[in-house]
């Protein structure tokens, strides 16, 4: 019997990286998956988003585990699109029990060099997109009356601060405020709301040129190995980064009955970066 057997998990940003890992890990533990991703680049960002092929690959990985999957190309800035996917999930998969609001983007620039567009895109995707996601999914959970778990993806940056990511930190700190208020409002429905705060995670976001340059501003063409050398010194376990599945295991815990009395918490998975 899997740890989330028979549940349906609604996951945004599921085409690659952590979102795909969450889809696979929850499916391994018996959940059916709603996999949402925009699969579309954002002009104000310096690295590409996932592709439709990436989303199909997530779909295949879940199906190969014997679980049902509903995969849709929708941008979290599109409330009507998310509402439609949630309605379709209820119709075809029988409801929604778990929400992983994971879709997010990152950019790096000194605060006063940020354009208004960079600022607004970051807030629209990382914060308003999370609000849209819970607004689409949670009313179905409330009306079904069987409780559930909502896990919002924040970042370790909210604990430590970091130069050149004001818009990112503002968005991820906003997610924590949203998490706390939602946990207060939804407890009476048996719905728990928590945040996971990844440190560095080995995904395309971390290995984008713009992020590599933040860690290695003195190098002309920094590589992931350069980043690892420097990032290792920043965490107490000396790792530099974790794998996407390490975040998935935290999401799985928060989604499962093992965390049945855990709500309103911020859970870092950061190798101790915030205290290093
Ligand atoms: N990688 C890290 O080091 C790290 C650290 C802390 C927090 N995070 C957070 O973890 C989450 C997952 O990031 P990741 O590391 O897997 O990066 P990633 O870039 O590999 O994956 C992000 C996914 O979100 C999708 N996406 C982006 N904008 C979207 C939108 N508007 N609508 C729908 N989907 C959209 C992308 O297409 C992509 O598939 C993000 O919220 C990110 O901010 C990442």
Q: What features would you describe in this structure?
A:
By secondary structure, this protein is an alpha/beta fold. It contains 9 helices and 7 strands; from the N terminus they run E-H-E-H-E-H-E-H-E-H-H-E-H-H-H-E. A 7-stranded parallel β-sheet has the order 3-2-1-4-5-6-7, sandwiched between helices. The longest helix is centred in the middle third of the chain and has 29 residues, at 116-144. It is globular and about 55 Å long. The mean pLDDT is 96. Nicotinamide-adenine-dinucleotide (NAD) binds next to helix 1 and helix 4. Nicotinamide-adenine-dinucleotide binds next to helix 1 and helix 4.
What key attributes describe this structure?
oxidoreductase, SDR_fam, Sc_DH/Rdtase_CS, SDR_subfam_1, 276 residues, 44% helix, 7-stranded parallel β-sheet, alpha/beta, binds nicotinamide-adenine-dinucleotide, globular, Rossmann fold
Short description:
With 276 residues, this protein is of the alpha/beta class. The protein has one domain: Rossmann fold.
Oligomer: single chain
The helix content is 40-55%
The ligands found in this model are:
nicotinamide-adenine-dinucleotide
The largest beta-sheet arranges its strands as: 3-2-1-4-5-6-7
Mean of pLDDT: 96
Summed up, the helix count is: 9
Summed up, the domain count is: 1
- Coarse morphology: globular
User: How many DSSP-defined strands?
Assistant: 7
Given helix and strand content, the structural type is: alpha/beta
Give the C-alpha Rg.
18 Å
Determine and state the CATH class.
Alpha Beta
Distance linking N and C termini:
39 Å
By CATH, the superfamily comes out as NAD(P)-binding Rossmann-like Domain
Content of β-strand: 5-15%
What is the correct CATH architecture?
A: 3-Layer(aba) Sandwich
| SSE succession | EHEHEHEHEHHEHHHE
Largest sheet: 7 strands, parallel
